């Protein structure tokens, strides 16, 4: 082939490609592209093979007649996909003959080892193997000895301490110890049994239920729990733990002690709205925004501050507008404390999130009106709230009732009182919070969750359309908050997470058995053919063997009472 002419080399490339992909091309119509134009006339002629073609080309043309194809000429400049691969081969040095022979030898050995692995890997733990390992196990050998010679009345041997209370249920069949209906597994095979139980990652409860039907050894339950806790796949796919006990915000004592802000939208009208809610009075403010940059957000909040006053604290989520330097400068200028809620935990900003839902529902109902936002705000501000002990937001925020159209039904001389007993209202707030907390904890089955600094945890990491559990370490708890600062090596920075987004992580211990797969099901080490031949064949199990239980006690003949009338006592 080195002596082929250029046209023959180009033709050989086409023949090689077609024969290489014969299974994919045969019976289907395809396009054959080449950058050698003379081959179009030779292989693509509708009038048959040209008679002036070389015999080698004619033979190749006959081979191509078995396929249904159209041949197409492509300029070399547009034929880079195949052209670059043909030039890439020349950059690699040609291996010597010795290297080729060594590679062939290595490939052969790997192929043989892979065959042995494929045969040996799926072999389960058999009863005959358990019987052999039971005889080698010193503790189980002592148990078998007790079955033959009798158990001691007092348990003085610490090795038999786990089996002595269960001695009545232990028996022997074909050299295997059985506890009830469960096989007692020797120490050398326990890791393989754990791997078999964990092969489909069923979880702790299901693994224990399977083990209770088939296998037993002292401490199997704890080893199952340890294995699942250290399995990365199981931990990465675990469900979110039960919610922690509700930690409500401290009830404010006055207006603008704490306000909550958030964005709603883009809504059905194409706009995004900034919502502003006072935590004490539930007084809302709504501002239409487009666009929603940090500069625009600061300008809107400045207009609210100039109209209503400066709040002591602003609570927001972690949106880029609130994390910007412009917003930080705004808070610093007006002496406002800025508090962030945990990422991806809108429940922590529930004061404004609840109003977001109310606002969107009002948009669906009244969005066609011209001044629907103003009408919605007026109705909300003047409506008594159950969470405010029957008071309305305007009554608590302004200290008076706002005049509305419904007030026209009252005569001019009638006065509507708006006295708010602050002490009574504060007691109601505390009782209302306790009631809501109790309802939440009962509904969600909440449990108290706390973490210590330095404790290893898993935390939820949120990505586009996907959540995953990442490993981290607790640094500290945010003061008066169920939020923790966590160090996450995977992303290279510290993050804040709500306690509901964290769960305990069991660190992988170094003494974990190597043959217990906690991450991926690795292949068993290859055995040589000599080792395969040395494995003794498993003998057939004898049938109709009765189980060997506890040794029979010595029975004495019964001495029956023979009454003697002359004797007064026996």
Architecture overview:
The longest helix has 24 residues, at 97-120. This protein has helices at residues 6-20, 22-25, 38-43, 55-64, 80-88, 97-120, 127-136, 138-149, 190-197, 204-214, 220-229, 232-236, 294-308, 325-334, 350-366, 372-381, 393-398, 422-444, 529-534, and strands spanning 29-34, 68-73, 170-173, 176-179, 182-184, 215-216, 259-264, 272-278, 284-289, 313-316, 337-340, 456-463, 466-477, 483-488, 493-498, 502-504. The chain has 3 domains: 6-91, no CATH class; 123-230 and 533-562, Endonuclease III, domain 1; 259-433, Ribonuclease H-like superfamily/Ribonuclease H (Nucleotidyltransferase, domain 5, 2-Layer Sandwich). It is flat, with a radius of gyration of 41 Å. 37% of the residues lie in helices and 15% in strands. It is built from 19 helices and 16 strands. With 570 residues, it is α/β, with parallel strands linked by helices.
Provide a short characterization of the protein structure:
The protein is of the alpha/beta class. Helices cover 37% and strands 15% of the residues.
SSE layout and pairings?
Blueprint: H1 6-20, H2 22-25, E1 29-34, H3 38-43, H4 55-64, E2 68-73, H5 80-88, H6 97-120, H7 127-136, H8 138-149, E3 170-173, E4 176-179, E5 182-184, H9 190-197, H10 204-214, E6 215-216, H11 220-229, H12 232-236, E7 259-264, E8 272-278, E9 284-289, H13 294-308, E10 313-316, H14 325-334, E11 337-340, H15 350-366, H16 372-381, H17 393-398, H18 422-444, E12 456-463, E13 466-477, E14 483-488, E15 493-498, E16 502-504, H19 529-534
Parallel strand pairs: 1-2, 5-6, 7-10, 10-11
Antiparallel strand pairs: 3-4, 4-5, 7-8, 8-9, 12-13, 12-16, 13-14, 14-15
Region (Disordered): 499-570
Domain Integrase catalytic: 248-401
InterPro entries: DNA/RNA_pol_sf, Integrase_cat-core, Integrase_H2C2, Retrovirus_Pol_polyprotein, RNaseH-like_sf, RNaseH_sf, RT_RNaseH
């Amino acid at each position: 082939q080195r002596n082929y002419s250029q046209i023959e080399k180009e033709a050989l490339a086409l023949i090689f490609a077609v024969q290489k992909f014969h299974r994919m091309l045969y019976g289907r119509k395809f396009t054959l592209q080449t950058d050698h134009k003379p081959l179009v006339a030779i292989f693509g002629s509708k009038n048959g093979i040209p008679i002036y073609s070389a015999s080698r080309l004619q033979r190749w043309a006959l081979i191509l007649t078995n396929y249904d194809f159209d041949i197409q000429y492509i300029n070399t400049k547009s034929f880079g996909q195949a052209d670059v691969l043909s030039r890439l081969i020349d950059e690699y040095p040609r291996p010597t003959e010795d290297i080729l022979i060594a590679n062939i030898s290595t490939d052969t050995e790997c192929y043989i080892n892979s065959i042995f692995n494929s045969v040996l890997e799926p072999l389960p733990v058999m009863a005959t193997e358990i019987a052999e390992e039971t005889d080698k196990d010193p503790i189980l050998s002592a148990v078998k000895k007790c079955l033959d010679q009798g158990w001691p009345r007092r348990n003085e041997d610490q090795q038999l301490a786990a089996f002595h209370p269960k001695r009545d249920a232990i028996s022997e069949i074909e050299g295997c110890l059985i506890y009830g209906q469960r096989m007692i597994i020797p120490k050398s095979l326990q890791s393989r049994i754990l791997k078999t139980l964990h092969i489909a990652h069923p979880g702790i409860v299901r693994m224990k239920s399977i083990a209770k039907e088939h296998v037993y050894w002292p401490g199997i339950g704890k080893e199952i729990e340890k294995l699942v806790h250290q399995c990365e796949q199981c931990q990465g796919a675990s469900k979110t733990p039960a919610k922690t006990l509700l930690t409500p915000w401290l009830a404010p004592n006055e207006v603008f002690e704490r306000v909550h802000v958030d964005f709603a939208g883009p809504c059905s009208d194409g706009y995004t709205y900034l919502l502003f809610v006072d935590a004490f009075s539930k007084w809302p403010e709504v501002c239409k925004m487009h666009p929603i940059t940090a500069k625009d957000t600061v300008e809107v909040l400045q207009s609210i501050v100039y109209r209503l006053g400066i709040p002591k604290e602003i609570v927001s989520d972690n949106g880029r507008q609130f994390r910007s330097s412009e917003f930080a400068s705004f808070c610093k200028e007006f002496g406002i404390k800025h508090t962030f809620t945990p990422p991806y935990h809108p429940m922590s900003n529930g004061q404004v999130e609840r109003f977001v839902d109310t606002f969107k529902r009002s948009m669906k109902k009244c969005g066609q009106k011209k001044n629907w936002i103003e009408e919605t705000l007026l109705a909300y501000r003047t409506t008594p709230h159950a969470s405010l002990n029957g008071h309305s937001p305007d009554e608590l925020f302004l200290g008076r009732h706002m005049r509305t159209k419904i007030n026209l039904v009252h005569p001019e001389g009638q006065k509507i009182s708006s006295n708010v007993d602050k002490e009574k209202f504060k007691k109601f707030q505390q009782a209302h919070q306790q009631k809501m907390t109790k309802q939440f904890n009962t509904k969600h089955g909440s449990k108290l969750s706390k973490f210590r600094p330095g404790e290893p945890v898993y935390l939820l990491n949120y990505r586009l359309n996907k959540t995953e559990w990442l490993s981290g370490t607790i640094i500290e708890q945010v003061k008066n908050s169920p939020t923790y600062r966590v160090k996450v090596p995977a992303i290279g920075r510290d993050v804040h997470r709500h306690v509901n987004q964290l769960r305990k992580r069991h660190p992988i211990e170094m003494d974990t058995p190597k043959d217990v797969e906690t991450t991926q099901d690795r292949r068993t080490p290859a055995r040589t053919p000599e080792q395969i031949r040395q494995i003794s064949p498993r003998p057939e199990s004898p049938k109709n063997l009765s189980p060997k239980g506890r040794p029979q006690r010595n029975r004495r003949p019964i001495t029956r009472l023979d009454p003697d009338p002359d004797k007064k006592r026996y």
